[in-house]
Design goal:
With 362 residues, the protein is of the alpha/beta class. Helices cover 33% and strands 7% of the residues. The protein has a five-stranded mixed β-sheet, covered by helices on one side. Mean pLDDT is 75; it is low at 205-220, 274-290, 296-300 and 309-320.
């Protein structure tokens, strides 16, 4: 790691604006009394935002005063973390990713544009609009090559579209963040090649979570028949069309009631015999296949444990509420022994019975 030093030219003083001072006080109140030093990184960040993208020495001193910290402690933080700029930067500060995935995808051409238009690394352009710094991986390797300009990512760059991007920024024109080639998030550059049933053939929001009707049933893939997908889509329909979902739920409830009535008539209101027990842990060890929950489902919710995150789980309380135990699922307890049953204290040979109780034995 290179040694990071403060800039030679520094402003005379620094203080937070009234609005930022209110924000600073709010950050400090997040921490217990005597632990206000925990806010140091947040305050350095706000000072950098206020002071044209870099942290001057007077700002470090001011933060140390506010937090009651030694100046050297705040300086240590500011010089250790590279996200704090210690010297003036351009209005549009460009962090250029020069690690392997971006290089393999043409980052050298992007670097050449920066050197030609802005100048060497850490230099500010003559108009004050740009400066740049080569950094380590920024985590957008799928859309390489890329740069971060201030707080935004710009991806899928070429020498041509990057040069145009800099022109637009310099002129104050609106620019497109993210992919510069029209790619949606990190999808394949040529469009979706999998999960098209789930995300839609075009991968757009309108197709999300819908199942297109196939022209030929034989061409449906195993993914199209995935039970988890079917459950998730059914749950989505239930949320989007509550009337239909309520009607279906009513029919299911009526069917359950009818099933329970039939069981009561068969047994006369008494517990079924052991050999008829359908509980998974009952004495009979049988399982009621017709009423068994689907493999991987969450009891009482219709939600599968392998559902995609966020699908059919809009109400966490409904998913995780305790499931009332049915009679078929309860373990049958052995009958309690009679009150006068021998418990080893009064039987023949026991201390309480005395010698006479065992006189007939050899």
């Amino acid at each position: 790691m290179t040694v990071r030093r403060l800039a030679d030219i520094q402003p005379d003083s620094f203080d937070f604006t009234p609005e930022n001072r209110v924000w600073v006080d709010k950050q400090i109140r997040k921490y217990p009394e005597g632990r206000q030093a925990s806010a140091v990184m947040a305050l350095l960040r706000r000072a950098q935002q206020q002071h044209e993208g870099w942290v001057p020495k007077p700002a470090i001193e001011k933060i140390a005063e506010i937090l009651g910290m030694p100046y050297i402690r705040v300086l240590e933080v500011a010089t250790f973390y590279t996200m704090y700029n210690l010297a003036p930067v351009g209005k549009h500060f460009i962090q250029f990713c020069g690690t392997t995935p971006c290089v393999l995808r043409g980052a050298d051409a992007i670097k050449a544009v920066l050197e030609a238009r802005v100048g060497p690394m850490n230099a500010v352009s003559a108009d004050g609009n740009f400066s740049w710094l080569e950094v380590e991986c920024l985590g957008a390797c799928c859309n390489a090559p890329m740069v971060q300009i201030n707080d935004e990512y710009y991806e899928d760059l070429t020498a041509e579209n990057f040069d145009k991007l800099l022109d637009d920024l310099a002129a104050g024109r609106p620019v497109q963040r993210g992919s510069q080639t029209g790619r949606r998030t990190s999808e394949p550059a040529g469009g979706l090649t999998s999960l098209t049933t789930w995300y839609g053939a075009q991968g757009n929001q309108h197709g999300f979570g819908t199942t297109p009707v196939p022209d030929n049933e034989d061409v449906r893939t195993a993914a199209d028949r995935d039970p988890a997908l079917d459950d998730a889509l059914a749950a989505r329909v239930g949320r989007d069309m509550p009337e239909r979902h309520a009607e279906a739920s009513g029919r299911e409830a009526a069917a359950d009631i009818g099933s329970n009535d039939t069981g009561r008539q068969r047994t006369g209101g008494e517990a079924p015999p052991a050999e008829a027990d359908t509980g998974q842990g009952g004495l009979g060890g049988q399982r009621d296949v017709a009423n068994a929950r689907p493999e991987g489902s969450v009891a009482g919710t219709g939600t599968r444990t392998d559902d995609p995150v966020g699908v059919n789980q809009a109400e966490s309380a409904a998913v995780h509420k305790p499931h009332p135990e049915s009679a078929a699922d309860r373990q049958e307890s052995p009958p309690a022994p009679p009150a006068d049953a021998d418990r080893g204290q009064t039987g023949p040979g026991s201390p309480a019975a005395g010698p006479a109780a065992s006189a007939d034995k050899p």
